[in-house]
């Protein structure tokens, strides 16, 4: 029964978002980056083991959380990455509101539709008022639907590149994240958006 309700919500969302022009959609999400990131695979001499060691004191903790916003590439935002903020620890409603007010909404055109999941920090407080004052609107993803959010593909791409750089302190980590994000090819966001839009007819 719960699965049926979830599928109904996904279908309703698919109908709703299919009516919004792609260029108006802006997808938001948070992602954690530890200092223990390392390559998941590599090459070694035949018969040997491929090993990358992470210093013991970095194997746990020291989480670094990033929030970002992704749209289709445009003249004013060639990569599609509209904003990228970082903080130590996890995001709260207050810090998320600060991101919206000072980082994202000032750079968005009026009429943008912000698409985000149902995390508690994305609800309540001044969030709705801030978004509407900027001439934008909110659209929440259905439960268990990260496949509808193209920014998940950005996080995967970003983490793979940051792994290769293996940052081992906070400054190196943020520099690696920023430099990698700045090099995001413009056609990637376009393809990620297409991948999500192609899934929608399956539910309609």
Features:
alpha/beta, Nucleotidyltransferase, domain 5, five-stranded mixed beta sheet, 6 helices, 5 strands, 38% helix
Folded structure, characterized:
The chain has helices at 2-17, 93-104, 127-133, 151-165, 170-182, 186-199, and strands at residues 25-33, 64-71, 81-88, 113-116, 137-140. It contains six helices and five strands. The chain is of the alpha/beta class and 204 residues long. The two termini are 20 Å apart. Helices cover 38% and strands 16% of the residues. The protein is globular. Strand 4 (113-116), helix 3 and strand 5 (137-140) form a beta-alpha-beta unit. It has a single domain (2-39, 57-202), classed as Ribonuclease H-like superfamily/Ribonuclease H (Nucleotidyltransferase, domain 5, 2-Layer Sandwich). A five-stranded mixed sheet has the order 3-2-1-4-5, with helices on both faces.
Briefly characterize the structure.
This protein is α/β, with parallel strands linked by helices. 38% of the residues lie in helices and 16% in strands.
Detail the topology: elements first, then pairings.
Layout: H1 2-17, E1 25-33, E2 64-71, E3 81-88, H2 93-104, E4 113-116, H3 127-133, E5 137-140, H4 151-165, H5 170-182, H6 186-199
Parallel strand pairs: 1-4, 4-5
Antiparallel strand pairs: 1-2, 2-3
Total of helices: 6
CATH architecture: 2-Layer Sandwich
Strand content: 15-25%
Largest sheet composition: 5 strands, mixed
At the fourth CATH level, what is the homologous superfamily?
Ribonuclease H-like superfamily/Ribonuclease H
Low-confidence stretches: 38-44, 54-59
Termini separation? 20 Å
């Amino acid at each position: 029964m719960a699965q049926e309700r979830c599928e109904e919500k996904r279908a309703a969302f698919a109908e709703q978002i299919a009516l919004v022009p792609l260029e108006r959609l802006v997808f938001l999400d948070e992602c954690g980056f530890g200092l223990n990131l390392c390559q998941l695979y590599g090459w070694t001499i035949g018969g040997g083991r491929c090993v990358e060691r992470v210093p013991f004191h970095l194997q746990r903790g020291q989480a670094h959380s990033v929030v970002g916003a992704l749209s289709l590439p445009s003249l004013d935002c060639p990569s599609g990455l509209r904003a990228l903020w970082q903080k130590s620890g996890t995001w709260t409603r207050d810090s998320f509101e600060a991101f919206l007010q000072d980082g994202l909404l000032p750079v968005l055109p009026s009429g943008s539709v912000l698409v985000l999941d149902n995390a508690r920090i994305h609800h309540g407080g001044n969030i709705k008022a801030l978004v509407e004052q900027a001439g934008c609107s909110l659209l929440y993803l259905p439960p268990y639907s990260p496949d509808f959010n193209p920014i998940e593909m950005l996080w995967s791409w970003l983490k793979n590149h940051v792994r290769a750089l293996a940052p081992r302190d906070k400054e190196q980590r943020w520099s690696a994240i920023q430099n990698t994000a700045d090099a995001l090819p413009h056609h990637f966001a376009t393809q990620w958006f297409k991948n999500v839009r192609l899934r929608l007819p399956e539910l309609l």
